[in-house]
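Practice problem 4.
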């Protein structure tokens, strides 16, 4: 396990490893996205209360879940970067932050579109919505902080600390519907309980969830490779690789 961990810290090894994975992730993501969208939007039955408006769940739920999961991964990477000074940890944070911001914006936007016919309003200062908005600002803060600092090591440490501090918001997002009286409905699918929706609905949602995982993996690895090219452009191994292209 430790040998694998140390390999992940090598830009050269990670560059080749990511290059091998990216095509598989891309193909899997595109295929499952097509299947999930067609299944969810065209063949899943309408909800008995919300009708067809609920179908936005097939985009809203995976984007909201991945926005939180990706931030947790960034916080873990921040801890790894601070403790072991592994530069690939900062490479991950730099690559993941814009993708996390995009996912959070997508979750907020689709939630607003879904909320209008369901709640009769685009936005309320609901605990779940407000904490998700804070997550969006945390992502933007990490991006802005990195851009504002010229010294790469100082920027890496500052972004790692912000990612760790901001991680306290994730359990607030998750448990906000349980801790406070909110408009946002509780989770329809839990690992410890049977789904609260029929299989005709949760199966395409599961497909979309897997598709979003593959999509995010593809995009993060692609951005990490670009980060490695930028950071290692003076190294011999990268010059040799670029020369062989």
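Answer key:
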């Amino acid at each position: 396990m430790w040998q694998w961990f140390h390999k992940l810290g090598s830009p050269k090894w990670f560059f080749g490893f990511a290059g091998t994975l990216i095509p598989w992730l891309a193909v899997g993501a595109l295929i499952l996205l097509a299947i999930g969208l067609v299944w969810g939007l065209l063949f899943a039955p309408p909800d008995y209360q919300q009708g067809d408006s609920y179908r936005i769940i097939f985009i809203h739920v995976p984007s909201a879940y991945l926005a939180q999961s990706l931030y947790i991964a960034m916080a873990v990477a921040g801890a790894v970067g601070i403790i072991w000074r592994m530069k690939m940890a900062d490479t991950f944070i730099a690559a993941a932050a814009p993708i996390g911001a995009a996912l959070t914006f997508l979750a907020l936007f689709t939630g607003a579109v879904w909320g209008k016919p369901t709640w009769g309003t685009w936005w309320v200062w609901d605990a779940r919505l407000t904490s998700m908005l804070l997550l969006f600002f945390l992502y933007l803060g990490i991006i802005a902080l990195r851009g504002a600092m010229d010294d790469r090591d100082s920027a890496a440490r500052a972004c790692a600390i912000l990612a760790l501090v901001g991680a306290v918001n994730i359990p607030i997002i998750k448990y906000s519907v349980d801790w406070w009286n909110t408009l946002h409905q509780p989770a329809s699918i839990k690992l410890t309980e049977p789904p609260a929706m029929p299989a005709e609905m949760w199966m395409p949602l599961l497909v979309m969830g897997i598709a979003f995982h593959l999509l995010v993996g593809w995009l993060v690895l692609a951005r990490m490779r670009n980060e490695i090219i930028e950071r290692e452009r003076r190294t011999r191994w990268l010059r040799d690789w670029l020369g062989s292209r």
